[in-house]
Amino acid sequence: MQLARRHFLAAAGSAATLALLPRRGGAQTIHLPFENGERPVVAFPQKRPLLLLTPRPPQLETPFAVFDNGVVTANDAFFVRWHEAQIPEKVDATTHRIAVTGAVNRALSLSLDDLAGMETIEYLAVNQCSGNGRGLSSPRVAGGQWENGAMGNARWTGVRLRDVLDRAGLKPSAKQVQFNGLDGPVLPSTPPFRKSLDLAVAQADDVMIAYAMNDAPLPLLNGYPVRLIVPGWYSTYWVKMLAAVTVLDHVDDNFWMKSAYRIPDTPDNSVVPGATGFPTIPINRMRVRSFITNFADSATLQAGPQTVRGIAFDGGSGIARVELSSDGGTTWLDAALEQDYGNYSFRRWNATFDAKPGLRALAVRATANDGAIQTPKAGWNPSGYLRNVIETYAVTVQ
Amino acid sequence: MTRALIGLACVLALAATAASAATVPHGPVSINLPADGFAFKPGPGANAANSYCLSCHSAAYVTTQPKLTRAQWNAEVVKMRNVYGATFPDDQVTVLADYLTAQYGKP
Question: What domain range is A122 assigned to?
Fold first, then answer.
């Protein structure tokens, strides 16, 4: 595999950040392709070395080359993102309970063994941060400065949320379902991280309380012992260390629903940079995206037939078509779609093109089964959400 | 097709006919999160940044941002107080915005 990296590797000490990290001497730094993109590569507990965005609360990005390893993302390579710094460092699955309360006929306190007694469901699904690719926004926006590694694809096993709600029995007043994990804010004045789904979404066939990830317990930093899976939706809803399911008789007005994680309610959910006063809605389904995984921007390729491979995914309709361009998007050829692991999974693809010497702009474009197609111009919103522009890779063919 | 992918295909093929290998976990998992390791640059206002920002998050939340204007840093500081519940007094908003602009900003 030829893997010339967009991120050049540098020795420890060459980056300003690492000068502050003497105890991490010897660590590599990866330079993401934007200002202040230096990232130490650090192994957190249960994790291989990942790109350290912030240590407290922990935010870790998956090195992009990992996505060439197969359709699933290994648990120890899976990205990490927490909102608030009070994160339990010890969690006991045996004593853990999920409290189901609110507008229900019977409040429940479910153990993991209670879940084991219910019908099991499982599927592969992509978990992607709402702000994946935020660092590439132009103009730049404040927020977690990810490149494109705040995503992963895993096989999730658990029980239907709907079955849990049925066991509790919804009252007629039920409108939304709110989720809360074991984590919390440092200050009592900080709004605790809670997310809610409309009843129709929460009762869908496939929304899951998952206790296994790729046939293993979840790493603690990915939500051990149970997390919510909302397949096709951005991961802000995939609440980790799930401890409370509260059925609301109103639309949730907590900060994390009312003010944060909102997108413009405009065509394409995009606005002109600097715009204010537009209406917003909670972020929801993921946009269709595709990437090359067997080489990065600035790679050098040999002239002649070259096989390109990568991944594509969307918000749950599945991938209909992936096309590759070797002339910056003027002409396109169809890629071969590889095995179908379900509409929520990464879909691997490959294509072979005749590499002619010179500078070439490779581009990849996916079309979803719902008809959505990636476009050459990135939309913009103030929070840097929803990125799904056609990815272009400048390569030198020798 | 890679070996890993073939392995996964086998797992999925088995899953079609048999129950998942996954079972509910039992018992405790314990980790130790590493120390922060990032720090604010020295300069006027650094004491305020160390006092009021680091209680909730690493300095990396600042150092990894693009260079923001003073208006943008001021908006971030105000958001931290009004939205995220930071408890610094009114007169520290200017101190913090000036510090962040001088060390991590652009004109």
Answer: 98-260
